[in-house]
Amino acid sequence: MHAEFTPDLSGHSLLAVFAHPDDESLACGGLLARCSEQGARVALLCFTRGEHGPGPDRERLIDARPRELQEAARVLGIQDVVLLEHEDGMLPWIDPATLERDIRDAIQRFEPDVVVTFDEDGLYWHPDHVTLHDRVTSVVAGLGAAAPALRYVSVPEGVMRDVVEAAAHDAGCHGSRSAPILGIEDADAFGSGAPAPDLIVEAGSCAARKVTALRSHRSQVAGTALDCLDESLAARLLGTEHYRRAKVGATGTAFSDCLATPVAASRRQT
Ligand SMILES: [Zn+2]
Asked: Within a domain: residue 214?
C-alpha cells in the first residue's frame, strides 16, 4: 500500500454544491474528508431538504434529512452547511436566475478556491442534479478572472453494481440485497454515460469516514446494500472518486488536485 500524501491545505477552501442531503457523501465524501483533514475549509451548499426522497413520508423526511445532513457533515469535517428550502424534485422548473443567485451568494460568502458539483450526467441522470450542473457551470463561467476552479464529480461506472453484488454474498446483508440504492432500481444507472474523469481521488484512510457519513443518511440507506455491507468492504468499493476539470473557471492546478491522480489523456480516449 502506498503512503498517503498529506499536504498542508490550510488557507485553502472548497465549496461543494449539491441538490439533496446524501449527494455530498455519496459523490465526494472521500475528497471532502481528505480536504478537511488536511486543514482546508470545506463548505456545502445543498439546495433542498430531500423531502420527496424514498423512505418514510414527506413530513418525517423534512425533519429527518436535515438532521442526517448535519451528522454527515460532522463526520466529513464540513464546517459550514447552507441548506436551502427549494422543493425537492423541482429544480429544473425554478427560475435559473434564482438558483444562480443562490450559487453566487455562496461563492461570495465562502470565497472558495475550488467548487465541486455534479458532472453532466448528474450521478444517475437525476433532473435536479443535471440542473445544478448547468447552473453552477453558468455562474462560474460568468465570474471571469475572479472565478474559482470548478471540478465535476461522477460515480465510477460499475461501483454500485459491485456494491449490490457484494451485498448478495455478504451474510450481514440478508434481506437487504435487492432493495434499490437511494431509490434507484437499476444500480447500473450510476455513472453510466458519465464523461471520462481526468482526476481520480482515492479516499484512502478517509474511506471509512465516507461510509459512516453515507450511513448517517439513515432515512435513505437503511435496509439497502449501502447500509448492510461489511464496513471495510464498503470503504474499499466506495473509496475511489472520479473528477473532471471544467472548461470554465480558474485554470491550472487547483489545491484539491494535489490529492488526485491525473488520468492520462490517452487512457481517457480508450
Ligand atoms: Zn441527489
From this structure: yes
Across 40-44, 219-223, 231-235, least confident range: 219-223
Q: How far is the CA of 20 from the centre of ligand 1 (A)?
A: 4
| Distance from residue 237's CA to the centre of ligand 1 (Å) | 20
Strands 80-86 and 149-154: unpaired
Give the CA diameter of the chain: 54
From CA 32, how far away is CA 25, in angstroms rounded? 8
Residue with cell 492546478: 253
Could you report the per-residue pLDDT of 28-55, keeping only the tens digit for each?
A: 999 999 999 999 999 999 999 999 987 7
Instruction: Using the mean position of ligand 1's atoms as its centre, give its distance from the Cα of residue 70 in Å.
Output: 16
Domain that residue 239 falls in: 13-246+258-268
Cα(26) to ligand 1 centroid in Å equals: 9
Distance from residue 145's CA to the centre of ligand 1 (Å): 30
Residue 58 to residue 40: CA distance in whole angstroms: 35
Please, are residues 42 and 206 in contact by the beta-carbon 8 Å criterion?
no
CATH of residue 188's domain is 3.40.50.10320
Q: CA–CA distance from 40 to each of 13, 93, 149, 211 (Å)?
A: 5, 34, 15, 21
Which of 8, 68, 72, 75 has the alpha carbon at shortest distance from 35? 8
The residues placing their C-beta within 5 Å of ligand 1, an ion, are 19-20, 23
User: How many domains does one find in the chain?
Assistant: 1
Tens of pLDDT, residue by residue over 68-96, are 999 999 999 999 999 999 999 999 999 99
Give distance in angstroms: CA of 110 to centre of ligand 1. 22
Ligand 1 centroid from CA 47, angstroms: 10
pTM for the whole structure = 0.95
